[in-house]
Amino acid sequence: MSTTKIALVTGGSRGLGRNSALHLAQAGHDLILTYRSQQAEAQDTVAQIEALGRKAVALPLDTSQTATFPAFVLAVTQQLEQHWQRTSFDFLINNAGIDARSPFAETTEEDFDNLLNVHFKGVYFLTQKLLPLLADGGGIVNFSTGLARFTTPGYAAYAAMKGAVETLTKYMAKELGGRGIRANVVAPGIIKTDFTAAARAAFPQLEEYMSASTALGRIGEPDDIGGVVAFLCSDAARWVNAQRLEASGGYSL
To answer: HSE of 88 in the Cβ direction (CA atoms, 13 Å)?
Structure first.
């Protein structure tokens, strides 16, 4: 049986998910990617991974729709059997996310629920449903945000969901430790991706302000994050568990 590790990255068609997938491929992992609507971008990422000599497949998934999770698990099972002759994968990277900025006093219940379903409920139940396929000795990487440590007005709901994910990650580490499964958090600061494009467009001085408040003097690039994810999915991180690893360049110290 092949000793190649397989990582499943949600939201792997663009942004930090795409970058994480490429770093994992460079580290020797095969990939299962999910995308919500950007199939062409997902297939482009698959092609880039294959150009690195690794296997990859892309599957549709809306992480806010928990009713679709059993069918998604079945699809993952079929792909594992077809492409790897395996019944399990090794690493789950819960990256998929949406951005919705609104002041606390103006946040609608609909906005709140949209964030909740993707960033917390989806992470909770997708991970739960995939546990039978997650190999013993594997790992989970959940994405949080620097906004769970420092505050930027307009992100109360988003940051609260990520704070919940950080607490959940500790419980995952504790309850899955008997299977040798590690669970950790990566918490990026502001990164120059499509995810933050609207905020950067709405506030032209945002990048300058954030850079001035960052010890390394700039905002982040996707390549600043993908390597952190790859590290947490490596033997070098085998004793790292239940930890929050903020990758923000030293913002707001």
So the answer is: 16
The DSSP output letter for 146 is: G
Catalytic residues: 158
- The parent domain of residue 138 ranges over 6-192+222-243
CATH assignment of the domain containing 43: 3.40.50.720
Give the Cα separation of 58 and 61 in Å (integer).
10
pTM of the prediction? 0.96
What pLDDT, in 10s, does the model give residues 129-140? 999 999 999 999
Q: What total number of domains does the chain contain?
A: 1
d(CA 11, CA 188): 16
Task: State the burial class of residue 106 (Cβ atoms within 10 Å of its Cβ: 0-12, 13-18, 19+).
Answer: exposed
Look at residue 110 and tell me if it is in a domain: yes
E strand segments, the chain: 6-9, 30-35, 56-60, 89-94, 134-143, 182-188, 244-247
Which token pair is 166? Answer: 């950080």
